[in-house]
Amino acid sequence: MKIPRLQNQSGVELIMLIVMSGVLLSIFTAGFLLINAEKRLTIRSADRERVHAIAEAGINYYRWHLAHSPEDYTDGDDILLDDISRAGYTEAYLDLGSQYYSDATSTLLSIPASLDQALWLRTKQADAADTSDSFLSFWVNRPVIVSIGYDNRGTAPTWLSGSFTDSGQQIQVSDAGASPLRVWQKQFSAGSSVLLGGNLASGASGALSMYTITLTPVDSSGPFIHPYTDFDGNVIGRYSITVTPPSLGSTITTVSSTGYLLSSEKSTRTIIARFGIPSLSEYAVVANDVMRFGEGTETFGKIHSNYGIRFDGLAHGLITSACSTYDDPDHSGPQEDCVHTHQPNPNTVFEGGREFPVAPVDFNGITGDLATLKTAAQEPSGVYLSPSGVQGYHITLKTNGTMDMRRVTSQASCLYRSGSWHAYPDVFSIGNQSNFTYEGGSSLNVPFPANGIIFAEDNIWIDGSIDNAKLTIVAAEEPLASGNANIIVNNDLHYTNEDGTDTIGLIAQNDFHIGFYSEDNLEIDAAIIAQKGRVGRPYYADYGLPNNRYSPNACGDYVHRDTVTLDGSIATNERYGFAYTDDTGYQNRNLYFDDNLIFGPPPLFPTSGEYVMISWEEQ
């Protein structure tokens, strides 16, 4: 049997060729599209990385800015202009006598105070007759007020009178016909392209001199926009910065930086960073003298001294000193390490480690802070107490946001009979007190100051409790560099909230004392500074006398106290201590560090160091 032959072999081959060509074309097209897609993906990925680098550059720039201007949250006063549409229009900071045109000799004779130090964009007198509605444009990097000085002889064009406001200010110039120029103003946001019309555009008449242009920064938190250049100096993108300044009782500044490429402004990436200046209360205890911590002491948080530290208790935090070796005044023999213990096993003492030498802490700078605090207290939002004329002031804080203030008219006493009667010196305890007139009213139930600053030019006794409050209380006499005001706490001083909502700062120009008639179990929540003196309890000797040999009867029992607990921080210029080697004072000393104080200290509390980065995240 014969198999029949295909009659159109060449047609079949043609069809197969077409099919194969189509398959190959599809494969080629798919491959081409895949390559292009991968190329676009690579480009997008590269662009995203560049945009990320631009956003990072904004964070790094503002970190540099804060290092040089730690209290400026407005990015300085610099104004950057870009894309100036007309040649010969140049930027300059002008003074009286300066020429304000780039092609004429007319000069400035007087400038309104609001335009002092403003950035000028020098215009051209040759353009005075221009009638176009779109004459000049330029880009601004930050919120600005644009001021136009217009010829006094003329009627302003519609583009000026319709969108700018006549400020009522004037610029005196040497061009007598045009002078004084009337100042029209309008605010523009960051990233705006400012468009100005011609000098004699629609609606204008009579002006023979070209207008002037000045720009002043608006005090704001941003955005502030900066150019970003490649290695060849070409501007390829920008970053936009917004700044959130520290709130009351905080040193934390939040910076948001958004980066983008000029070739693709819709593709952005944003980084948010938080910077803070550690306060002087970053330490559980910091001293400008030798320190000794006895066996009954337990500390939580960092301890630092500019001199030597002997620690025989239990330290859960890092212990540091600014020296290498020193002569321990409580121990004879050779020099010892500036952080050392007399316990047999140092590992059971220094749980948080020890380090020395490190940089010292500056106590002398606190005098400048006292002046700042006094000024703040004398503002309407603060509380300022002049010298009492007696022993000082007693302030009791209350959880309802008010305080009772009284003058201490006399101190208490404790007498002991050894042959004849003798008195314990420096009992730092209240005997008698009285109310007084404060700002025309009672000294009781006075609201806490809005800015949180209480400043007395006298001694202060302080106690009580706060709830949702931040206060800094200062005792300092004039002259601030040599006065000797003290702060005394004999009764509990408490926070209601332990999450940083409540903070109390106690700044004593001289000493911080726990006095003779103090609670047996005393609790103090506060950041404490003794700028020139010491933090501690004075030495009250135990004479071992029967109770009836004391007056008041048994007052000698106050020589020995049980437990003092401090939750906060201590900064002391001289040697700190609440107990003595003869077992007088507080037998147990618990020093807890409140880490909320590091970047959330009491209002205007002294700081140490520079801004450090706390957190960094991409939004």
Description of the molecule:
The chain has 3 helices and 47 strands. The chain has 619 residues and is mostly beta strands. The strands form 9 sheets. Strands 15, 17, 18, 20, 21, 25, 26, 35, 37, 40, 42, 45 and 46 form a 13-stranded parallel β-sheet that branches. Strands 27, 28, 31, 34, 36, 38, 39, 41 and 43 form a 9-stranded mixed β-sheet that branches. A 7-stranded antiparallel β-sheet has the order 2-4-10-6-8-7-3, with no helix packed on it. The longest helix is centred in the first third of the chain and has 60 residues, at 9-68. It starts with 8 loop residues before the first helix and ends with a strand.
Uncertain residue ranges: none
Oligomer: single chain
Q: Which percent bin holds the helix content? A: 10-25%
Largest sheet composition = 13 strands, parallel
The portion of residues forming beta strands comes to 35-45%
Query: By helix and strand content, what is the structural category?
Result: mainly beta
Mean pLDDT: 90
Topology at a glance:
Blueprint lengths: L8 H60 L12 E2 L7 E4 L14 E3 L8 E4 L13 E5 L3 E7 L7 H4 L3 E9 L7 E8 L4 E4 L15 E6 L6 E6 L5 E10 L7 E10 L2 E13 L8 E3 L3 E3 L3 E3 L3 E3 L3 E3 L2 E2 L3 E3 L3 E2 L9 E2 L1 E2 L13 E2 L10 H12 L5 E3 L6 E6 L4 E10 L3 E4 L1 E4 L6 E5 L2 E2 L2 E2 L3 E2 L5 E4 L3 E7 L3 E6 L11 E2 L4 E3 L7 E6 L3 E2 L7 E10 L4 E2 L13 E2 L8 E13 L12 E9 L18 E7 L1
Parallel strand pairs: 15-18, 15-45, 16-19, 17-20, 17-46, 18-21, 19-24, 21-25, 26-35, 27-36, 35-37, 36-38, 36-39, 37-40, 38-41, 40-42, 41-43, 42-45, 45-46
Antiparallel strand pairs: 1-5, 2-4, 3-7, 4-10, 5-9, 6-8, 6-10, 7-8, 11-12, 12-13, 13-14, 14-47, 22-23, 27-28, 28-31, 28-34, 29-30, 29-44, 32-33
